[in-house]
Design goal:
25% of the residues lie in helices and 17% in strands. A four-stranded antiparallel beta sheet has the order 5-6-7-8, with helices on one face.
Length: 193
């Protein structure tokens, strides 16, 4: 049975150890919080192959369904990563990756922080204050040199894309119905108010 099993090893977040002035997680959206490994092992998979570039947690379900010989539902977000190692799609693909956290230490308590990464650029937004940070991940992978003021066109383009994504997310959340038992479990885990 194990010889026919595919396994994914990953994490939902990284940990910060003062790289940007904070510790642990859920406070910032810098690289040390967002970049986590994803390891997939199983039958008929390439061995010891490393694929550089950013995938996303939303890619796990379509990939695992494909490895099981099943077709992912059309509405399911994400991509089938097996298409990468099978050579059916070029990698990395051009798509935006999004992240959000509830509170950004040092800013307005209770505020949210959001991020969008597209290609070499990463935009961080503090919602209550409107403060932005823009990083060129090719020249500044440690996210130390905020070029938000030097690159207003890129900043503004990413801001529009982030706001469009959040508007769609809010509509989806409004349509979501969760039973009271599930809502209670999410509250107990700290994932819902």
């Amino acid at each position: 049975m194990l010889a026919e099993t595919a396994i994914v090893l990953t994490s939902d977040h990284g940990e910060e150890f003062l790289e940007h002035g904070s510790v642990l997680h859920s406070r910032t959206l810098y690289k040390e919080q967002l970049q986590v490994p994803m390891i997939i092992v199983g039958p008929n998979l390439p061995r010891s192959r490393v694929i550089e570039g950013s995938s996303h947690a939303i890619d796990i379900a379509p990939t695992m369904l494909s490895l099981a010989g099943l077709e992912a539902p059309a509405h399911l977000p994400g991509i089938d990563l097996s298409d990468v190692w099978k050579g059916r799609i070029e990698w990395p693909i051009d798509r935006a990756l999004f992240a959000e956290t509830d509170e950004w230490v040092g800013q307005v308590p209770g505020g949210t922080r959001r991020a969008i990464v597209r290609g070499r650029w990463k935009l961080l937004l503090d919602r209550p204050s409107g403060a932005t940070e823009l990083y060129d991940l090719e020249t500044d992978p440690g996210e130390r040199d905020n070029v938000s003021l030097e690159e207003p066109a890129i900043r503004d383009r990413l801001m529009v894309e982030l706001e469009d994504f959040m508007a769609k997310k809010r509509r989806s959340e409004a349509e979501l119905e969760i039973d009271e038992k599930t809502a209670g479990e999410l509250r107990a885990l700290g994932y819902a108010p």
